[in-house]
Write a structure and sequence with these properties.
single chain, alpha/beta, seven-stranded mixed sheet, four-stranded antiparallel sheet, 38% helix
Length: 442
């Protein structure tokens, strides 16, 4: 598979050109890779009006993912903002006010999009335990009937690696004629499993992938995917919508890494992924035999529920970091490790040695407090754009939250901007070590 962006950048660098254009380092910066860092000069194409090498590269990615695919150099955040715009415009085209039914574990970029686009949100919790978001088809159908949304937005996989039954959820959405958008930021690699577990393949209408999270792409590289049917409606508008939120100076280094990764995905990645999965499965089995509790879910995450082993996630993380092993995430209850095919066998062996060198202790029995559903005082837009002050969490009872900086793992907000802070949300924030919160100024 050709890599037209990479080829252009290399060819340009080899000319030893006189660069009378941005960026200011002129290809001779102090880091060593600036030679391939360009702006939108002649022949380099334009990300949001692609007609040349970028268009060709995106078409290559589309063939690999089996659906229309668009590049982002601003991570899944830009893709999520664009997805929300499409969902809003789709509702308006049908004469409806946008109202999105969203899983409570939505990323903060979704909250910010709600404020910027001013759409209504109905929250979907999935069950009575509001610190999880395990949504089943019957939960979704009931919520659709009750809230009458114009679209549904779900996160899959979540930060801990939990997977939803997207195929069943998509069937419910199609039954009720609402679009299904999936935040698949952690699951770009799911397309390359046998069989594919990618949301578009399972029936979603649109989704985002943070390519940099699980593929060999530079940080900030991401994909926006649309189903063929949805793309037929919005293909001429997608890049226009992306421009609403995007920098006018997209990174060519990130685009080049997306472009180069196409060749990898087309040739060696499936084999490398399969071999890595075998090694990760073997490591998980060894850890279980040592006494660890490993959560089930997506195959490329190792999520340990640490309290059954007698430790907090923070304590296990500190022991790993003493061995120069750095986890993706940890809190009081869990530690999340994210290997990829580009971790070596030695990497996994070092991880195994360190974890198996930790002695088990008596089980820790303290659990997260029960979180009650919060009451809404105003919408997200009103809350985020109101004057606000910072308070100690212990003094915030009855105040209206005005920020999204109170995220509690697994990435579920105990209180959303516009909601009243309750005793239970205060207890949850304290449990997770959150000391301050921004609230609407009275």
């Amino acid at each position: 598979m050709k890599t037209p962006i990479v080829s252009f950048l290399r060819s340009y660098q080899e000319k030893s050109p006189v660069r009378m254009h941005m960026p200011g380092h002129k290809g001779a910066g102090i880091l060593g890779f600036e030679g391939m860092d360009l702006t939108e000069i002649s022949g380099a194409d334009e990300l949001f009006a692609a007609e040349g090498i970028i268009k060709e590269s995106e078409q290559n990615a589309s063939s690999l993912f089996g659906c229309p695919t668009y590049y982002s150099t601003q991570g899944s955040t830009l893709c999520i903002q664009t997805m929300c715009t499409i969902l809003c415009q789709d509702a308006k085209s049908k004469g409806k006010k946008p109202k999105i039914l969203a899983g409570r574990n939505a990323h903060r970029s979704f909250i910010h999009a709600a404020a910027l686009l001013d759409f209504d949100i109905a929250w979907l919790y999935g069950n009575s335990d509001y610190l999880s978001c395990k949504i089943h088809a019957e939960d979704l159908e009931k919520a659709i009937i009750e809230s009458l949304p114009t679209a549904v937005y779900l996160t899959n996989p979540d930060y801990l690696g939990n997977l939803l039954d997207i195929q069943s959820l998509a069937s419910v959405c199609k039954k009720h004629n609402v679009l299904l958008a999936i935040d698949n930021a952690h699951g770009a690699y799911l397309r390359f499993l046998e069989p594919s577990l990618h949301p578009i393949d399972l029936g979603a209408d649109l989704c985002c992938d943070s390519a940099h999270k699980t593929l060999p792409v530079l940080t900030g590289g991401a994909y926006l995917h649309l189903s063929d049917s949805l793309n037929q409606v919005w293909a001429n508008d997608v890049k226009h919508f992306m421009e609403y939120f995007s920098s006018t100076s997209p990174s060519y280094l990130i685009m080049a890494s997306l472009d180069a990764t196409n060749e990898v995905l087309d040739t060696t990645f499936k084999k490398s992924l399969s071999e890595c999965l075998q090694r990760v499965d073997g490591l998980k089995n060894t850890l279980v035999q040592h006494g660890y509790t490993i959560l089930s879910g997506e195959p490329m995450k190792i999520t340990i529920s640490t309290k059954e082993f007698g430790y907090t996630g923070n304590e296990i993380a500190n022991l790993l970091m003493e061995c120069d092993i750095y986890p993706e995430f940890y809190d009081s209850d869990y530690i999340v490790l994210m290997p990829s095919p580009y971790n070596t066998k030695d990497d996994l062996k070092r991880l195994e040695t360190c974890l198996c060198g930790i002695d088990r202790k008596p089980i820790l029995i303290n659990k997260p407090p029960k979180l009650e559903q919060s009451k809404k005082a105003m919408n997200v837009r009103q809350a985020l754009f109101s004057s606000s002050i910072t308070l100690d969490v212990s003094k915030s009872l009855g105040q209206v939250c005005s920020s999204v900086t109170v995220s509690c793992p697994p990435a579920i907000l105990p209180v959303i901007p516009g909601e009243v802070i309750s005793e239970s949300s205060i207890e949850v924030m304290k449990y997770y070590g959150i000391e301050t919160v921004r609230v609407v100024k009275e």
